[in-house]
């Protein structure tokens, strides 16, 4: 996908505008999206996968498939694998246009995405444990996506240097973390108040 994107951009410069509009749309959608309280089993994709695979209700040790009465069944572990791999694809679809805003060198794009995926997988449990403490992070990330999208859309009119782009992204993250710390402190104070 990375090499295809790199080739397409080298052949059709206007695709940077498509990628920029995609990032702009994603950033706005992320900022406006409401929290979804429904369980994973209620998601259309999960329902679709379950309707097309014979699946057991419980995990059978470390197996993706199991046999019951001679019939092959998928286990929920296969569903988890499918969802994790689809998440990787979605992450790539979102991050590849963003990296093309910085460079069109396919080697840098590929290695940066590989390291990002490996890092996210390795740090998943750490991030999952503290995710609820960073409730404002989604807004900061949405602003970053909008910034990168706008940067890609105005590339022919004004080139924002890489150092300034990194400073803006770092500044947005820093402000987001400061706001998040303040919000967490306010929530902690409210919890400590006697009723």
UniProtKB/TrEMBL annotation:
The keyword Zinc does not apply. It is found in: Membrane. Coiled coil: none annotated. Keywords: Membrane, Transmembrane, Transmembrane helix. It is a multi-pass membrane protein. The keyword Transmembrane applies. Pfam families: TerC (PF03741). The chain crosses the membrane at residues 14-33, 71-101, 107-127, 139-158, 164-183. GO terms for cellular component: membrane. It comes from the Bacteria. InterPro entries: Integral_membrane_TerC, Integral_membrane_TerC_rswitch. Its main location: membrane. Has been proposed to be a redox modulator. Belongs to the TerC family. This is Putative membrane-bound redox modulator Alx. It comes from Klebsiella pneumoniae. The gene is alx_2.
């Amino acid at each position: 996908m990375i090499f295809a994107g790199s080739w397409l951009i080298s052949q059709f410069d206007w695709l940077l505008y498509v990628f920029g509009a995609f990032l702009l749309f994603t950033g706005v959608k992320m900022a406006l999206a409401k929290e979804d309280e429904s369980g994973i089993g209620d998601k259309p994709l999960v329902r679709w996968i379950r309707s097309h695979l014979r699946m057991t209700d419980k995990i059978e040790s470390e197996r993706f498939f199991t046999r019951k009465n001679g019939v092959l069944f998928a286990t929920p572990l296969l569903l988890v694998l499918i969802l994790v791999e689809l998440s990787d694809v979605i992450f790539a679809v979102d991050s590849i246009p963003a990296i093309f805003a910085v460079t069109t060198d396919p080697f840098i794009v590929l290695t940066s995405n590989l390291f990002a995926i490996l890092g996210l997988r390795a740090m998943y449990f750490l991030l999952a444990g503290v995710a609820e403490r960073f409730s404002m992070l989604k807004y900061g990330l949405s602003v970053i996506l909008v910034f990168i999208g706008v940067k890609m859309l105005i590339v022919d009119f004004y080139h924002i240097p890489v150092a300034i782009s990194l400073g803006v992204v770092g500044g947005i993250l820093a402000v987001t973390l400061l706001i998040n710390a303040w919000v967490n402190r306010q929530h902690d104070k409210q919890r400590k108040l006697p009723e």
